[in-house]
Design a protein that fits this description.
Blueprint lengths: L4 H4 L13 H7 L7 E10 L2 E2 L7 E9 L12 E8 L5 H17 L2 E3 L2 E12 L1 H8 L18 E5 L2 E5 L14 H21 L1
Parallel strand pairs: 1-6
Antiparallel strand pairs: 1-3, 2-3, 3-4, 5-6, 7-8
């Protein structure tokens, strides 16, 4: 597959598009044979109200192919999943099927005669609300909603309502950072609790 001009002419210093980036070039270059093509994707999930003052909204799970010329990408977006409801979408029916398909396309690809085409996600963009769908965690307004450390936050009054804030620690050391190991332990605890609840019912 021929890469676009700004990629093939990349001089190592000037960044013109996602194809100029180091992460992209590591994903694509030198990782396929003559009969293989690798496409990369930018993925986006966001929610939007269907009508003004409506509690119901649409949550599209969109995919954009980076190898399409920049000016044509928005006209050729791929809708991978769509959720409509008055709450944020649950992870399993909304995301898991699409993620499983992406894993298959990234590892096994699709056959077109002698050609095998792979699709590999490169970038995920979401706002803080949609991010919790992917992480299956607490929103930023919730207790321990920080993605980087174990700061519980505190509630403060703002006008007629309230908001959760994360004031800077005045003690030393500060709040411990989150780790992959701790996240895995937390997931195991939650999994056991769910299994126990299902068995009990």
């Amino acid at each position: 597959m021929k890469l676009r001009k700004e990629t093939t002419g990349y001089d190592g210093t000037t960044l013109g598009d996602v194809q100029s980036g180091k992460c992209y070039r590591e994903k694509v270059h030198g990782d396929c044979s003559e009969n293989q093509v690798i496409f990369t994707a930018q993925i986006n999930v966001d929610g939007a109200q269907s009508f003004k003052k409506s509690k119901f909204g649409f949550w599209p799970f969109m995919c954009v192919i980076n190898e399409i010329p920049y000016g044509a990408r928005r006209a050729h977006m791929i809708l991978m999943a769509l959720w409509f409801g008055n709450k944020k979408p649950p992870r399993v029916p909304f995301l898991d099927t699409s993620i499983a398909e992406l894993k298959h396309l990234g590892s096994s690809g699709m056959k077109f005669g002698e050609l095998t085409v792979f699709l590999r996600p490169l970038v995920l963009t979401t706002d803080s609300m949609a991010q919790t769908v992917f992480l299956d965690g607490t929103i930023c307004r919730g207790e321990f909603g920080c993605d980087f450390c174990l700061h519980a936050g505190e509630t403060t009054k703002i006008g007629r309502g309230s908001a959760r804030v994360y004031p800077e620690s005045t003690t030393n050391p500060t709040f411990p950072l989150r780790t992959i190991e701790q996240n895995e332990k937390d997931l195991m605890v939650i999994t056991v609790q769910i299994i126990y609840a299902v068995a009990k019912n």
